UniProtKB/TrEMBL annotation:
Pfam families: DUF1485, MlrC_C. InterPro entries: MlrC, MlrC_C, MlrC_N. Residues 4-305 form the Microcystin LR degradation protein MlrC N-terminal domain. This is M81 family metallopeptidase. It comes from the Bacteria. It comes from Cutibacterium equinum. Residues 315-483 form the Microcystin LR degradation protein MlrC C-terminal domain.
Length: 505
């Protein structure tokens, strides 16, 4: 009989330093056949980002019909995924946890579970949310079922998560161009072990006392590039199945938030040795991580952008990056753009993408395209200074966006502001084209983002990562973590070299 593999998981990254609360409505929820359709190996499709396979040590020639996937019976249970945001409403989390547990109980005999998660979900009142979820899952499926977790490298590996999963892997690229390669690897390793009736692999976990923002740990630059570049070689070794390095999630305050290494394989000694080796390698470079681009305060960066002849000049509003959990309505950058005469009345054109404010969008919809508006924008979710900003201008476009809901393009002097109904992030050319605009037509483009996603990176003639305040402030030490393990770099910059400890299973 074919091995039966259930699929379940909740995928979100939650900043606990933002006032935003993620509700059930923020999630895309997939069940039954819709859930199966999510996975390219089930639909016989190529994986998105397949061109990066070689860079992360994977085979480029993945057939459309994967034998390992055909040889198992997939059992869809539940998958919920949302844009990063604030903590998840406890009622939403408990309802889904119950649905997953019930679904697994009713699924009958199971051999495996693909646990499709991010790894940085926060739920008020629940420490280590993914650990809580996997413990609840184990209670119903028992210890024998083989569980394979696919995670974001910005997730956290707690002891509970490690102990209750048999295979754990994460992305090897930031930006996460290999997200689907990673999910496929997690599924394939699981299925191949089940099909060959192999015993559970050995596994080893090494935590590294480092907690850094993603903007300092992009795998496009050193030292993360070489650190992650070690993985394919380690994975090639005899007795090693998978090696994974987690940066961890910096914008939450729990003891589990830190970097981690997990190696799995058939040779216990090789697995432990590789985990320790990668852990030591990580620690060796811990103080070499730097921001992925030049950094500055927003006002000073805007001065530089206005004065530059590089067009478009990109400024990332990193402290309010909704892609990491920011509220998406902090007005620090909007206020500065509105206050610049060079932009309001002068020769410089600027674009701000984007800011969430459903009431402002409704006011734009009321007057329609080409209508004049006098509205207050932003500063409602995250009320930090300078708060709502008055924007007087013309509505240039109104478009229904699949992610941002009804979206208004408002121009005030030389400044164009994209205002959305739902939190959204502009990462692709297509999103701008949908609004009838090209970011290349502007002199200065401000995006609520940290490191630039590929399309935006390609269009930027120059770029400064601005260290703005917000729920995902890049200056971690000023956020005031209280519950993370100490000592921890960079919170204790002069800490002694740690004794790295191996946990096995
Ligand atoms: Zn991530």
């Amino acid at each position: 009989m074919a091995p039966r593999v259930a699929i379940c998981g909740i995928h979100i990254e939650s900043s606990t330093f933002t006032p935003h609360m993620t509700t059930a409505a923020d999630f895309t929820v997939l069940r039954a056949d819709d859930l199966l359709q999510r996975y390219p190996w089930i639909t016989h499709s190529p994986i998105p980002g397949a061109e990066h396979a070689e860079a992360v040590g994977e085979d480029l020639s993945i057939p459309l019909v994967r034998e390992w996937s055909e040889a198992v019976e997939w059992v869809p249970v539940l998958h919920c995924g949302a844009l990063p945001g604030g903590p998840v409403e406890p009622t939403a989390y408990s309802a889904w946890r119950e649905e997953i547990v019930d679904g697994l109980r009713e699924a009958g005999h199971l051999d495996g579970i693909l646990f499709d998660i991010h790894g940085a979900m926060s739920v008020p009142g629940v420490d280590d949310a993914e650990g809580d979820l996997i413990r609840a899952i184990r209670e119903v499926v028992g210890p024998e079922v083989m569980v394979s977790a696919s995670m974001d490298l910005h997730g956290n590996v707690s002891r509970a998560l490690f102990e209750n999963c048999d295979l754990l892997t994460c992305y090897r690229m930031a930006p996460h161009e290999d997200a689907w390669i990673c999910r496929e690897r997690a599924a394939r390793n699981l299925c191949e072990l089940l099909i060959s009736d192999s015993p559970k692999p050995h596994k080893a976990l090494v935590h590294v006392p480092v907690l850094l923002p993603g903007e300092m740990t992009s795998t496009r630059i050193e030292p993360a590039k070489s650190l992650y570049g070690r993985i394919p070689e380690v994975e090639q070794r005899q007795g090693i199945l998978d090696a994974a390095i987690w940066i961890g999630f910096a914008w939450a305050d729990e003891p589990r938030n830190k970097a981690a290494i997990v190696v799995t394989g058939t040779d216990a000694h090789a697995v432990e040795e590789a985990a320790l080796e990668l852990g030591r390698e990580f620690w060796k470079v811990h103080s070499d991580f730097v921001f992925v681009a030049p950094t500055d305060s927003y006002p000073s960066a805007l001065d530089a952008a206005i004065a530059s002849d590089k067009r478009p000049f990109l400024l990332s509003d990193s402290g309010d990056n909704p892609g990491a959990g920011g509220a998406d309505d902090v007005t620090v950058t909007l206020a500065e753009l509105l206050g610049r005469p060079e932009i309001q009345d002068g020769p410089v054109t600027a674009l701000l993408a984007s800011i969430v404010d459903p009431a402002a969008v409704a006011a734009c919809a009321e007057v329609g395209v080409n209508g004049h508006v006098d509205i207050e924008v932003g500063g409602h979710l995250d009320s930090r200074e300078p708060g709502p900003q008055r924007v007087v201008g013309v509505v240039e476009n109104l478009v229904d966006d699949p992610r941002g809901g009804l979206t208004a393009v408002v121009r005030s002097g030389g400044l164009t502001v994209i205002v959305t109904t739902k939190r959204n992030q502009y990462t692709t050319n297509e999103q701008f084209h949908r609004l009838g605009m090209d970011p290349r037509d502007f002199d200065v483009v401000t995006v609520k983002i940290g490191y630039l996603e590929p399309d935006i990176f390609d269009l930027a003639a120059d770029w400064i990562l601005t260290l703005t305040p917000g729920g995902v402030d890049q200056d971690l030490v000023r956020l005031g973590h209280r519950r993370i393990d100490r000592p921890m770099y960079p919170f204790d910059p002069d800490m002694a070299d740690p004794q790295l400890i191996i946990v096995t299973g």
